[in-house]
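pasting for ref. prot 1 ->
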Amino acid sequence: MNIAAETIPTLEQINQTKSAIDAHIASLNQHPDRREGAMPYYLFHEPGRPIRGTVMIFHGFSARPHQMWRLADYLFQNGFNVYQPSIAGHALMYPDRNWAQVDLKPEYAEPLKDKVQKDPVLQTFLQNFAHNPTATRPGFMQQMGLIARLLLIEPQLLDIVKSLESNNDPDFDRYFTSSHLRYLTEAQARFAELDAMPGAIFTVGLSVGGAVALGLAASRPERVRGVVAYAPLLKIYGEQRRRYVNLAGPLDISELGWDEKLRFPVGCLTAADRFGSQVVMSDESVRSLSNIPTFLVLTENEDAADIETSQDFYQRIGGEGEGHRFFLYPSEDLVPHPMVDPTEVSQNMSNRFWQSLYQETFRFLTTGRANMTNLGRIEQDPGLPIVPGV
């Protein structure tokens, strides 16, 4: 199956596309909260040259578009046009006002914050955490303790959080305001910038960007020809971690992500979780994606995205019988959640198999197939374009 039939863009088509993207980048550059190094970028071949299609690549939560520049360059060098946008608000600083979030409405948040401020135990912890510049996030036992303490001072929180965690709970809008749909609407706006570009479009993403790639494809099945999602965050890994994120969001606790200089409110993670679990996992999205070749790549060394949720999602869209592909790096391969760039280290791990991952991404985008054996090899397949070393 050839899912990347070649097409030849004209000068006018390329110029129209560049103009649309450049206008978006210019608006971001003029924004007072502009985030250094987080601007979208594109790699387009010259007019008159055949291309295999255009790949939209979506970075992970709190990262920047250049997070996957090696993959972008490899695909570009082998016949694809590439566009790397920023996911919802990530081109801007100050996540508390610019990134997608889920927040308790003031009539519920203010009484809770008042109780927290009057609780000496919580105040001591929050002050200690806030003044520790190396603390990325509370540890597992700390999160467990915070959950217990919050429920002790405000038992109603349990009902409030249930409305957040349950599918289509009518009480969600009663308790919360949410901008989680920005992950989709902003991706759709970037997608529209490619209207003048002929040929197939493919979506690729890592973590939350993987969820964006899936959600965007589901919303535009008439144009997207394939999806590759690396460790897509469809649901936060671990029930206790997820419960902590949902409970702690209203307290303005901040954490560090892939950008060591940028703290974000926990409510931003709540929005990412809700986008994956409520939008991408919706019956409508599943039906749409069942007809779009989809390749999911996961790792057993996961610390962000729930593995079982992705496995269930793969079966819901039809699995291999419907032309989809799935690969899970075993724990002994020591592949971390951010698996795409070989220089990115997480949990003291980095992906030694990254070149084979790039090759199989290329194979899938061009044929709809993937060689699972090759994914577990450090040596590259000589029958595919070779990936340059670091």
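and prot 2 ->
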Amino acid sequence: MSDSDHSATDIITYIGVPLAVLGVLPILYNTAMTLTALSRIKRMLRHSKLTGLTRSDVVNRVIEVELPRYAVRPMDRFSDRAEYWSLSRHPSSIPGGSWTTFNWRTNVIGLKTQRVEYADQLRQPQVEVAFDELICYLLDLGAVPDPHGWRLLRSTGLWTPVGCCLMLSPDGKEKALTIAPLDGSDGHLSLAVSWAGPWTTRDYSQLPPYWVRLPPPPRPPPTADENEESTAAGDSKSAAERTSSEPLREDTSSLQKPSLDSARQRGASDARHPITCQISTDGIVTALSQIDSQHQPQSSLHLDSLYIEHLRLRASKSDGAWFASAATAYGTTSQTILWNYKIPDDVLRFARKETVPCGVLVVLGVVDEDATPEWATRYDADHGKQLDAFARRSREQRAAIEAENRMPPAQKAAAMRERVMRENQQRLDEMRDKAREQNQRRETRLAEALQSPKWDTKLVADHHLAWLQKKGDVGADLTLMEAVGTVLHRMVLDGQFASTLCRMLDLWKAWAENGGMRKSDLTALQEDQTSFAYATLLVAIIKDTSSALEGSMSMDLQECLRMWRTVRLG
């Protein structure tokens, strides 16, 4: 055999081995690419501070990544102040992780497994968050709603185009909250968030949404007696300091006095400082007394919780509903973007109705009769009739006296006694007739007052505000809105005042729904006219709010929050 001849073994060696090597190359390539992608994925998870489980199939070039799914909520505004107002130190760069821009309170609710081939295919699971809490948090940071986006979301729902802007940066130039793709959202509204540090234009000293600040009533100027009392108190305090080294007798009264004085001082201090209240869907949640201490920086807030059980929402009492409605109306203006408590429809209908007759205000002494339309019967002056009756009685008396003078003494005395008795009886009859006529006219006037034209609630409140200012119960320079704030402030601190005021509101609402005011209702108003005056202020502010926000962007936002309680953020 020559050198050029090759055996079958040589052919297999020269051709088969290279072919076998070529067959293994795809496996080697897949292994290298899989390990490279796995390394990138682990690096991405490590940089984003995510804990995930990874598995790889080098033959099929598949990488499984198991990441936790979270339910999140914003940090507490008071206890987690630093985290609440700052951005996360390690935001995720993985698509779907825009929520890691902020610091959250997280809770693991499940795991999500992804099968990817390349690192670019990895997606971070979206988180579940309450829609109202998310919007409240962004508004608190300084975000501005986009009216067009909310109107579009309300009308089209889940078909809203991806990228539609709902919230803008404070300068209105950048998108802060947008519609995200529905991939993996399981039918929930999908959102994406973006934020930068300089966009935070608010701080903890400003009230967040759902909170309202109630001002204290203005302090009256000190009188001479109060100045003398304060001087005497200072002298007694100095004397107490001088004798502090002397032994004190320990008796029951001395043990109870410090705590009693402390409670009184605490109540007086709360009455002089503003109160901030949180109003949720269930009414008032928290009431805090805001005291700016002279020994602390002016930017710090010292918050002390107040007793609010008498203003809680209860099925058996309406006090909580009235307070929450009035506080919501007080904190809601044409510029208000978000509020939480929904004023009941029956309260809104009651506030819009004209239910107070103008004649009743005249009877109560709140309005002059000349300022109202003519509603009462006018009686002509009966001075002429009285003069005629007096002249007739005088003539009869003179005639009787002349006749008596012509009688014998015994008969004259009897006639005189009879005349005096007759005149006394006549005077009594005239007094009874006059009293009966006055009572009849009074009853007629009350009936006509109850049937007189009804005035708008705002007009009634304006007159009662002037009446309260004239009495000195309300500051002379306070507007209707400011007066309502002081009334709500007093309702928080004074449970008896709040209960009395709410009973008057219930009485008013009852007669408005049952055909109008009756005589018994008018009697109740006369017995506690001051409470009714305060009640008119609260109802007027509720009426103004009910008509201020109809058709506004705030209504679109509120409706969207009602439709989607929970959203996916990624």
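The chain has 17 helices and 15 strands.
Confidence is low (pLDDT under 50) at residues 223-227, 236-263, 292-303.
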